[in-house]
Amino acid sequence: MASTRLQLVFLAPIIALLVSSRALGAAAMAGSSLAAAQSGVFSLDSYGARGDGTHDDAQALSNAWKAACASPRPAVVLVPGGKRYLLSEVVKLSGPCRSASVTLTVQGTLVASPNRADWSDRDRRHWIVFRAVDGLTVNGGGVIDGNGETWWKNSCKINKALPCKEAPTALSFHYCTSLRVQDLKIVNSQQIHMSIEDCTNVQVAGLSITAPGTSPNTDGIHITRSNAVQVTNCKIKTGDDCISIENGTHNLHVSHVVCGPGHGISIGSLGDDDSRAEVSGITVDSVRLYGTTNGARIKTYQGGSGYARDITFQNMVMGGVKNPIIIDQSYCDRAKPCREQGSAVEVSNVVFRNIRGTTVTKDAIKLSCSRNAPCHGITLQNIDLRMEGGNGAAESTCQNAKWRKAGTVLPQPCTSQNETRRQVAATEQPL
Ligand SMILES: *[C@@H]1O[C@H](CO)[C@@H](O)[C@H](O)[C@H]1NC(C)=O
Ligand SMILES: *[C@@H]1O[C@H](CO)[C@@H](O)[C@H](O)[C@H]1NC(C)=O
């Protein structure tokens, strides 16, 4: 009995000390969050971030996000300028948030760990993920750096001896509504730079997305299962698609985008493994492509069902593009050849209008459609595509394509549904 009391007497000051230091810590935390709550700005530096590029600041970002997301007033999570914040794990920033709007302002740099072992096999597909946030803005003029070199070196596309494994998308948005992504540099992603999935009412503007032309699978912007999306004023130079438009995309408007190097603007691949695909209401306007493998492309696998329709590519300039205009309904990227099948994703009401520039292969216009589901309602209007350097004849080829011509179309389009037409290249015009 006595000894217990004695112990208590001895322990009491220690307990008091522990309690008070905890209280102090909490008070300090409460102080910073009180200041944040008043100003509405939740700086990573107030949540213990070092910003030295070596210590992991992922927890600081998560904590600042949680506080901002719980704020009753519009809140800003600030990544201060002039510093590099290392995020060496997957960071999930989830809603719903309490206030009607939350902003992540990146003035400095968020940089990913170069160490692939920092990703567990449980989730190798993501780095920074926003989920289920309404009224989210990401802006600030800063940099999101995927630090992807080690991932590229270990890609099976670069080193054929290695197994094919997934790599992270730098910036993902899942189930976000009223989303704005503006004024950011996204560089050297491990794989896709930015992915918009299951989102509605999205505005993307003023992005600069850059990775080497040789980096594997580094799509610029990937869009799927999303409605009412606008992408404008972006510069995208990567090793894969500039913008890839996948299944479930409806009402997408892309304008004033410059692409290249990379694989161009692609709708698809759709219908893989006999799946259903639905894509409609796509406009690609005032886009320039330089040195890309494709310009305006729609690609579907054999088999599959559904549709890709009401699509317009217009006011485009192509410089040294391999396949400026291409619909390919027998796309295959498998080791084994894909066999011909009875069904296909139906491609219809597609307009290619006011498209000029140069091609580096003779395939300027290629409408290669499925025998069982011919493309229909294809319009070619005011097109002028020539071999780069006046180097021979550009061609147009058509298989199973029901199309019409308006205005001048060079190379002269095929007259039947199944034909190849050559046109002797005239002198190249400056772009
Ligand atoms: C594509 O979207 C449609 C309609 O939303 C859906 O039924 C289909 O399963 C999706 N296909 C794939 C491959 O996810
Ligand atoms: C087009 O050519 C393919 C073979 O390349 C042939 O099977 C098909 O019947 C032709 N279609 C028409 C309309 O001539």
UniProtKB/TrEMBL annotation:
Documented EC number(s): 3.2.1.15
Reaction(s) the record says it catalyses: (1,4-alpha-D-galacturonosyl)n+m + H2O = (1,4-alpha-D-galacturonosyl)n + (1,4-alpha-D-galacturonosyl)m
Keywords of this entry: Cell wall, Cell wall biogenesis/degradation, Glycosidase, Hydrolase, Secreted, Signal
Alphabetical list of Gene3D superfamilies matching this protein: Single-stranded right-handed beta-helix, Pectin lyase-like
Coiled-coil residue spans: none
Molecular function as annotated in GO: polygalacturonase activity
InterPro entries: Glyco_hydro_28, PbH1, Pectin_lyas_fold, Pectin_lyase_fold/virulence
GO-annotated biological processes: anther dehiscence; carbohydrate metabolic process; cell wall modification involved in abscission; fruit dehiscence
Catalytic center residues: H263
Chief location of this protein within or outside the cell: secreted
Residue segments, region Disordered: 412-431
A Pfam family per the record: Glyco_hydro_28
Compartment(s) where it occurs, according to its Swiss-Prot or TrEMBL record: Secreted, Cell wall
Signal peptide: 1-23
KW Signal (keyword) present: yes
Keyword Cell wall biogenesis/degradation: yes
Membership in a protein family: Belongs to the glycosyl hydrolase 28 family.
Protein name according to UniProt: endo-polygalacturonase
